[in-house]
Amino acid sequence: MGSPEGRFHFAIDRGGTFTDVFAQCPGGHVRVLKLLSEDPANYVDAPTEGIRRVLEQEGGMLLPRDRPLDTSRIASIRMGTTVATNALLERRGERVALLVTRGFRDLLHVGTQAREDLFDLAVPMPEMLYEEVLEVDERVVLYRGEPGAGTPVTGRTGDLLEVRQPVDLGGLRGKLEGLLSRGIRSLAVVLMHSYTWARHEQQVGALARELGFPHVSLSSEATPMVRIVPRGHTACAAAYLTPTIQRYVQGFRRGFQGQLQDVQVLFMRSDGGLAPMDSFSGSCAVLSGPAGGVVGYSATTYRAEGGHPVIGFDMGGTSTDVSRYAGEFEHVFEASTAGVTLQAPQLDINTVAAGGGSRLFFRSGLFVVGPESAGAHPGPACYRKGGPVTLTDANLVLGRLLPASFPRIFGPGEDQPLSPEASRKALEAVAAEVNSFLTNGPCPAPPLSLEEVAMGFVRVANEAMCRPIRALTQARGHDPSAHVLACFGGAGGQHACAIARALGMDTVHIHRHSGLLSAVGLALADVVHEAQEPCSLPYGPETFVQLDQRLSRLEEQCVDALRAQGFPRARISTESFLHLRYQGTDCALMVSAHQHPATARSPRAGDFGAGFVERYVREFGFVIPERPVVVDDVRVRGTGHSGLRLESVPKAQSGPPRVDKVTRCYFEGGYQETPVYLLGELGFGHKLQGPCLIIDSNRWAEGRGRGCRGW
């Protein structure tokens, strides 16, 4: 995977706690490193600092941090970032005003009235991303044939509409000027039926840009799909997050000479594809960080012939992301993040707020892990920056982390090792609360040792991380024990064997770069361009020609866009989708004909009807054969294949591996003498008897017993 043309290719995953850098260097070798995502005392931007360190190490000369980096040796930069995710979670986006059709000012606030917990008696109202609402005088309705009611027009879906009231741009101008005077610079325009008749939104957007609004998000462009509530939330998210992303990108570019004009810069989207820097926007960026990990483990773990489906277990410093791969990426097209429903293609990733930096609490007699995180600054107590006690501290107290195996990058001066003493001191304060409750409670019990308290928190964290895996498998009819657990992320190895045992899995896969597999995934990812348009045709022989024509037109758009980015036609593939539902129902499924070739009774693109019935039965357990099927949307996903190759499989090794040292680790039964192996000295085919520790510079793994094997 080297860089033969003499320049560097960087793949960078900027997470909530750590930033991982995977660099393909001139000459064919790879250099990797991990650094804190936030360290204001030492650098401004972690990805820029990571690139600087690699160039410094490879070039053998110091590169001052206060000067822009020379880009003459950089061919490309690929990045996944949690900037949008964090801005959404912490509500630190742009100030936004919502422009909506008159009479619907409270539509997004009222929402769908759906509850996460059906029996919750105190349902909090979701916090809106916009702070002001302007009602726009305009109205478009379905054509009713009433004389003189309005101007008939044909929408993008083919439906006949009538414009009852054109946009009152004159009255809107003064209101928009008032927003500017109050400091609001970002607008979300959400008008009724704009998914099929976008002209009114376009007129409003043109006026806003003329008046000086730097960012205007039109719902008809953000997501041209039916259902105004999720479409409106998506447009608001784009208006709220895109300026934040643009500021980050501009700041990142300023760290380089020429602001990266001669470097290919791509960002990971939520759907697992890469997009050019200039088209990376808020609504497609929420899962930018974890998407790289899904691409990474799917390319390195899944075996197409006779292989088991894979569960991805990405445990980082702030949260844990789980996903499933069985030969193709699993996408969702409407999902909620931080209380905001987004109508955009995303990889189906479940997240739980439990990571290495999750804080530990004892509340009302219960061990609680997270959701609060110590982050990268100050970080866990063992980072020597006065941080709180975290799950990392619990593992350090249990002997499962060896300070000597970590670089000396901690403390205010970035020159000290991890501090077990700080971890023990911080955990002792929590243990005192636990034992006070046990000895003074209504049912007195013996006090717990410090190790027993730490193990209690580890068990709670493990169970929290098992739940989303069960939701992806058991809740959808899949047996978790039939899967392979692909463990990655900086903290994944510390919990992988316990998670696998709890779910009945017997195989854990830990990649050689598992500590930064999201960055590896970015290096292996493909560039994606999608085209989609609404539709209201019935699915049947009488419409197959029209559907094929629409799909062909969208396919041509995708191919042209990827060719413009330098991909030859031979390296471009496309996949077609139809958004189908039974007439009279509200549940539409985005269906691919990938596994259903065309027949005499289907469109040329494939038998979408068979795919729809198969998936409907799998997800809902029944079909409605007497109901006609309706097409809500047509979609094409174009992929420009990167052509990067994976590492070849090494030759099997003979003889027992060398034990580097023996340490004492605490497990369920108490302390045990535990051999430590260095990953760099292990070869393909080596077998280890657990319990043991496997140490590498970018991750740690715990081997447990005989019931779980890894490769």
UniProtKB/TrEMBL annotation:
This is 5-oxoprolinase. GO terms for biological process: glutathione metabolic process. One of its GO terms (molecular function) is 5-oxoprolinase (ATP-hydrolyzing) activity. It comes from Physeter macrocephalus (Sperm whale). Residues 231-530 form the Hydantoinase A/oxoprolinase domain. PANTHER family: 5-OXOPROLINASE, 5-OXOPROLINASE RELATED. InterPro entries: Hydant_A_N (IPR008040), Hydantoinase_A (IPR002821), Oxoprolinase-like (IPR045079). Pfam families: Hydant_A_N, Hydantoinase_A. Residues 10-211 form the Hydantoinase/oxoprolinase N-terminal domain. GO terms for cellular component: cytosol. It comes from the Eukaryota.
